[in-house]
Each structure stands twice: as C-alpha cells, then as structure tokens.
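Good morning C.,

I know you're traveling, so I'll keep this short. The sequence:
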Amino acid sequence: MKSAASGLVCIIFLITSCASGTHISTSKNAHESTDFQNIAVYSEFPEKYEELGIVTGECSLRFTAQQDVNAALKAMKKHAAVLGANAVVIKDINGTSKLSVLGQFSRASSGKLITGIAIIEE
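The tokens, ready to paste straight into the viewer:
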C-alpha cells in the first residue's frame, strides 16, 4: 500500500511541475487583458508597435524538446495576454536544468526557457 501511495505522489509531482512564466510591465499605459490564443509570435519587431513588457515561459517536463518549447511558449503568451499584448517578439530560447525534491523523491530535469517582449502591434 505504501509503494502505491508513493507512486501516486511521484506521478502527481511529475505532472504538476511543468509550465510557468513571468511578466514585468515596462509600459506607462494600462491595457486590458487579451486572449493568449490570439497572440502572434515574431522573431523581429514589426514596423509599428508599442512595447508593454518583458515576458518569460519555462517548461521542463515534456517528453521532447519541442513539447517543452510549445508549453513554454504557451505560458509566455498567457503572461503577455495579462499585459494586454497582441504579439510577442522572441528574444532568447535557452535550455534549463534543475533538481526538484519532494520528500524522499527527487528528479533532475531539463527544459526550455523562452524570453520575449510583449507588444501591441499597431
């Protein structure tokens, strides 16, 4: 019974420790939140835009590097939406590594960290 409970704790730990992100507003103007699913992703700034802030997304649990990137991008877009963005410009994609410890369980993982700029494309 104890090993079944330990296994369940381990599975829950693995499933719940993935995508996260942050945002820092750099705009003097307040904007209403937007729908993250409608946010465009660019590698360069468009001709006309208003910068809203710095956003990040990180994930380190998926089975492939591409799945980590996709989950990190989704987290970053959610944070850009909070700032009122309709687009993000990717500035950097880095690999990450960390050690997570929960009681007697520990897990080393690697993942992706994406940094970008939240903007309103005009």
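Safe travels,
E.
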